Amino acid sequence: MADLAAILERCRRGDELAWEALVRMYQSRVYSVALQYVRNPDEARDLAQDIFVRVYRRLDTFQGHETFLPWLMRLARNASIDHLRRKKARPPRTDIPVDEGPQIPDPGPDPEQNWMTDRRRRLVYQALEEVSEANREMILLKEIQGLNLQEIADLLAVPMGTVKSRSNRARLELARAILALDPGAG
Amino acid sequence: MSNMDDTRREEFIRQVLARTTGSPCARAQERLCAYVDAELDSIGTDLVRGHLEHCGGCAALAATLATMGGDLAALAQTHPGEAFADRVLAATLPWRGRLARRWRRFGRDWSQLLLRPRFAWEAAYVGAMILGLIFGAPASPLREVPGRALTLAASNPVQALEKTPLAEVPAAVERWSASAWDATGAPLLAWAGGARDGLAARLSRAAGAAAPLPARGRELKGACVRLHPGEAAAALGRLGSDLRTIWVEFTAPAQQGPADDPRLAGDNHE
Q: Which residues of B touch A121 (CB under 8 A)?
């Protein structure tokens, strides 16, 4: 895969192939952010598309010295929060099916191992639903998207120590939720 | 016997701790993330490990914390589906994207509009307005229909049937049905047929006038390619004149409008 900085530069110059490469490179990450906020695959797809439209429009504002992932996450988070605000003003028209889950990536070639891993990941996904909104966001940024403490502190505008303690609390809450759903998971 | 002693010892330690420093689980859980991430010093690690050996709940929590990291990281690779990238590309390319977004937004807004509880009232209101315009407007060709229908209903055909001999009832019903149709459905049908024929005639005349348009387009294109402003202006003028002719042909009154329709004429004599 080509260098990200070069792809971004070409995107800014209007190269459609570079834009396609960027979309394909980050579609899963952006979709997973949207999914964690709205918890409905179809709605998450629409939201993820809106996020990419925002990215496309604001690529000029991205400074070369910044790291792209935190910038992207900031945009995705703001778009998701805007979406949830709008949704609160206009409540959803359909109930979200309980068993509708995301397409979690295939972990490997061994079918039994696949089944176990898939089951565990779905359990984690389900348990995330039980976690408070603030803790879920912390898990999303740190554990799922892999941002470091400083990047999260900048994004949320809170001290790094606060991020660290919130992150630990969030992980514990999620672990408890997993055990509550499946006591044999530990 | 030895198991019984162990249980008593554990219980004794738990009761002593509960009366002195509080629950050791809370302390252990405060440090559990650091323990799993190997961020504790050696004494801290030994203390937490010692607690975990005797506390099943905290041990399960630690094991879950240790395994869930990989599962959470995998969630970042959740695939949105094959068509997603194409949708994004379509939405971000000029024209196509804007059009697709607007169309989707229209669909979403429309379905939300339909699902509002008030929609039934609003639809009924709009429907009543449309019916009022069709049958109540002074210029409407169907203005007479509701009045005729009311007159027909006021004539009380059921009462008339009571006095009719039984053998003649079918013929009387048939006559009444025919007069009801003449008063209500037939004018509607005649008007719709007339309007359709009128529109077809207008479109046919306009299409006849539009025949030279492709040639005019070619003239204009040729003038532009040759960079000849005079010819381009003349071609534009001819194009404008043709468009005006098309409009005149389309808006000219039909030679036989719905009012002159023989199907309606018969109806007017009644």
A: 71, 74-75
